[in-house]
Amino acid sequence: ITEKNPTVVFVLGGPGSGKGTQCANIVEHFGYTHLSAGDLLRAEIKSGSENGTMIQNMIKEGKIVPSEVTIKLLQRAMQESGNDKFLIDGFPRNEENRAAFENVTGIEPAFVLFFDCPEEEMERRLLSRNQGREDDNIETIRKRFNVFLESSLPVINYYDGKAKVRKIDAARPVQDIFETVKAIFAPKNE
Ligand code: UP5
Ligand code: MG
């Protein structure tokens, strides 16, 4: 039996830092499958699943959905993709997410992209997104910022301790950021 050993890159950064936008570009150029944990959870709400109401309430409050729910959705999406290279966007969001994913899947990320952006800029972006997301109101945005600082930054620091974090200045135009991102993914000359 051969163990499949997929390549996983975690794509992290505060709410509105541009994770989804940059992932779309990476997919086009480097053949990864983009899995946004938030998108998977929102799809689960729409599907009318038994967890839907619980997920919807947590997202409205900017809270982190229990790991087992999110990990199941990620695992299913990985299996269904047929690919072996994944951008996991917006997960893990806390230490428990991180440890549970590692324990359940046995996967460690190749590296972690960290889109670093000031709150004022992220707030501007979220308030002008206008895609009908129930969490894009100033009250929920403030809660999302707090959860990011308290729970998600420690995960980034954990991976930084393992020299896995590629920190990117995300307060620039989309194309400039992508130039930096490309240099990280491009095969290096030996
Ligand atoms: N934009 C993007 N880049 C720009 C740039 N360089 N300059 C100017 N504008 C830029 O971008 C946001 C907006 O900014 C867009 O309008 C874009 O055009 C513009 P986007 O690429 O969407 O940023 P992103 O970082 O993906 O923002 P998002 O709001 O998706 O981040 P969140 O982390 O808040 O949302 P996510 O969907 O990951 O999670 C939502 C909620 O789900 C969480 O709060 C939580 O409740 C729940 N959740 C879990 O519980 N567990 C999980 O594992 C994941 C989510
Ligand atoms: Mg997103």
Automatic annotation (TrEMBL):
As for subcellular location, the record says: Cytoplasm; Nucleus
* Co-factor note (free text): Binds 1 Mg(2+) ion per monomer.
Indicate which residues the UniProt annotation says bind CMP.
97
Which keywords annotate this record? Answer: ATP-binding, Cytoplasm, Kinase, Nucleotide-binding, Nucleus, Pyrimidine biosynthesis, Transferase
- CDD domains attached to this UniProt entry: ADK
What residues does ATP bind to? 16-21, 129, 172
**Which biological process terms from the Gene Ontology are attached to this UniProt entry?**
'de novo' pyrimidine nucleobase biosynthetic process; pyrimidine nucleotide biosynthetic process
Q: Which GO terms describe its cellular component?
A: cytoplasm; nucleus
Q: What is its EC number?
A: 2.7.4.14
Kindly list the GO molecular function terms attached to this UniProt entry: ATP binding; CMP kinase activity; dCMP kinase activity; UMP kinase activity
One of its Pfam families is: ADK
Quickly give the catalysed reaction.
Answer: dCMP + ATP = dCDP + ADP; CMP + ATP = CDP + ADP; UMP + ATP = UDP + ADP
Principal place where this protein is found? Answer: cytoplasm
Q: Which cofactor does the UniProt annotation name?
A: Mg(2+)
So where does a ribonucleoside 5'-phosphate get bound?
Answer: 42, 63-65, 90-93, 133, 144
Q: Which InterPro entries match?
A: Adenylat/UMP-CMP_kin, Adenylat_kinase_CS, P-loop_NTPase, UMP_CMP_kinase
Q: Domain remarks in the entry?
A: Consists of three domains, a large central CORE domain and two small peripheral domains, NMPbind and LID, which undergo movements during catalysis. The LID domain closes over the site of phosphoryl transfer upon ATP binding. Assembling and dissambling the active center during each catalytic cycle provides an effective means to prevent ATP hydrolysis.
Check the record and name the PANTHER family matching this protein: NUCLEOTIDE KINASE (PTHR23359)
Its function, per the record, reads: Catalyzes the phosphorylation of pyrimidine nucleoside monophosphates at the expense of ATP. Plays an important role in de novo pyrimidine nucleotide biosynthesis. Has preference for UMP and CMP as phosphate acceptors.
- Self-association state and partner proteins as the record states: Monomer.
Q: Which family does it belong to?
A: Belongs to the adenylate kinase family. UMP-CMP kinase subfamily.
Q: What is this protein called?
A: UMP-CMP kinase
